[in-house]
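Note to self: the last two entries modelled the partners one at a time, which told us nothing about the interface. This time every component goes in together.
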Amino acid sequence: MRINFWYISSLFISIFVIIPTLTVFLSFFESTSNYYGILRDTFLFEYISNSIILLISVLLLTFLIGTGTAYLVSFYEFPLSNFFKWALILSFAVPPYIYAYSLTAFFENYGTAYSILKNLFGDKNYNLYIPKFDGMIGVILSLSFSLFAYVYILARASFLYQSQNFIDLGKNLGFTNFKTLYSIILPAARPAIVAGLSLVAMETLAEFGAVDFFSINTLTTGIYNSWITFDDLAFANQLSFFLLLFIFALFILENLSRNKAKYHFNSKGGFKQKQKLQLKGTKSIAAFLFCFLVFFLSFLFPLSQMLYWTIKFPENLFDLQIINLLSNTLYLVILSSFVLIMFSLISNYGNRVTKNKTLNILSTLSISGYAIPGVILAVAFITFIAWFDESVVKNLGLFSIKKIFIGSILGLVLVYFVRFYSLAFNGIKSGYEKINISVDESSYLLGYSKRKTFMNIHIPFLRNSLLFVCILISLEIIRELPITLILRPFNFETFATTAYISASEDLLEAAAVPSLFLILIATSFIIITSKYILRDNNE
Amino acid sequence: MSKNFFEIKNVDFNIDGKTKVKNVSFSIEKEGDVICLLGPSGIGKTTILRTIAGLERIKKGSIELNGKVLSSEKINIEPENRNVSLAFQDNSLFPHYDVQKNILLGTEKNKEKIEKKIDVKEIIDLLDISHILNKYPHEISAGEAQRASLARSLMTQPDLLLLDEPLSNVDQSFKEEIQVRLKKILNKLKISTIIVTHDSYEAFYLGSKCGIILNQELKQFDDPYNVYHLPNSIEVVNFLNRGILIPAEVTSPKSLENKDLGTITGNFNKPFPIGSKVKLLVQPEDLHHDDQSNLKFEVIDRKFRGTNFIYTLKTPSNLLIPVFVHSHHIHQHEENEKFGIKRPIHIDHIVCF
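The predicted structure of the combined assembly is written out below.
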């Protein structure tokens, strides 16, 4: 094995990304304040039980919504079925916390629902009859409608590659459509559905904005509180340790499922493209209504609620420093995307040319960053910088580095880097998997060095993958809340933090404008990438 | 220092830590010679090419080109600095460039040489790829991709060209024509070439020397004529599959005796003591059909091969002997009929083991 620029760079990047995870694990053995005793006797059980209830409910709902819509648009034709095919992924543009604001705004006392009823039927006390979707129900609905698209996209991709032969076989065996669904179609798509549900589970356990808004205590809010309220970093890390163990189990499950999913997709022999069945009559209307309801609830409802409030309270639009928020958001997006893509490219190429096992293992570990909740990452980052500052920098007699990394753009971008590294690394890796290794070898034989092969052959080939990854990262950063909230510089706001701050001060009307902008920007990004997300062929 | 243009000395060829072919030595005497390496799939032929190209390293022996050591235990010149070109068996065209751009990339390496030898248009015409120049690799067939890849390799004007099964994806009907064109190009450009193939006819046609790789060894490295008519081991005979070995006894310096065929005369490839029990190689063209002969065997199979038939005859000792008969021969013999063999039997090259 030769030590060269590519090896050293890849090694350094992988180790850097693993540091927060290591910090959490090492902090497990540190002593904590009295908060642990208080929590153990009071809220710890509630944190754990709430996390489990939330997880099970969201998994169940996202399974039903995601798989149901994917099944309908993959196998049947009905009014607007082609529109729903991509429209259903627009729910990604609405982060759970904005969904939570919309839900509250619509159903609260004297909220939007009340105004509609009043305009339709006159002044009465409708508040008694309007259901209240707050607390645990509110969180479950917000998360489910915001996250079901993970299941939808992966299940649909799996359904798409199922051969017509499967369905014909079902018919041949005398199965009804329903029996074909649960005996043949669903089991064949199981790995993809499990992969989607694992992503939902990770996001649910990591969710901070919506659970905080509805005041539901989960392990994630527990971590945040133990650090913010009790200033107990070590205990925050200990809670993180337990949450991480749980998430790693899901992460491994998700990876295993993905491997199996690949196995299914590769079976090309005898593949017969299936014909969609044309639904007629009540079945057609039912399919349309189901998809429309999901599309409406997941995207149109929060969008129109935010739009309604923006129009109703235009002063908020003028009060908000839109240009400033937009430039801050774009600044973070551009800087982080550039750093993520550049280093992920180097790391991917390093892995490719060195073929080193240690590097390979480190890279696999380093992409686990996506499974770690943003709150934990932010806390771990602060812990590490504090330790490094105390133990190394001060002993060397140098100036404190805390201000350089904590509450600065640099710190924010570094933690984004750890959080979204797996997204960038895997996105570029899947692009690289399409380049046969003999292409690299041909390039060397044509006289190109490794650097020239990277610049002249790989980069042009990966152009589309890079664009796709760049937009995915941008989408995540625009929606990201806890890391930005904890690590942003003083007076530096984004659409997400402005919406959160207004909502946490019970000024939901003021939260509408930044939320609306956030949804619109995210929607435009999704539309640009939709053709990549919903690939209909083997490209 | 070696006097040969290219030389491999006692090299073990490895891939992924496993030795594929051991202790190989062979050479290309002068610039412009073409040699072919033959062997079954998976035996390590491609590993040899990859190692010569610098994509794999060696721990033993040396590889020299034009008096310069390319690979040894201590030296390993990077692939990009060898001026050795390898055309892969599979499509290795750059997928994001069209065929023309792919081919022209080959010219970048040796710009100063371009005017000296190679005309792009000529290569394109010879390989018949002008109609795909503006297409992308995914839009062309595997055979076209192979020819485009070959054109790119030629355009680099390498000191040594390595071709890995260069025509394996080319249609059978077009293959012979491309073989002729390839031979013409290589002769004209005087590019020393090593071709790996599993098609013995292709190897015999293109190569001035052929190497047979079997059981991790280079078993024979010789002129195509000698490889075919004077194979040096039973393994080579079995690999070429162009005859059978029958038991015989040496009766004089120029004859031997088989129980079914009787006396066979000819020139031995190497001397054997009189009275030795040997295995004699009988190739389909060694025996001749004669309806008048009283040496007759039963036909058990007949294969039509266009220009000829190959009859398989069963002798009283249950030997299965192949015999060529021109396909325009006056009549055909059906299975179970008797088939006459001309006597006396004379074989130019008597090969015994």
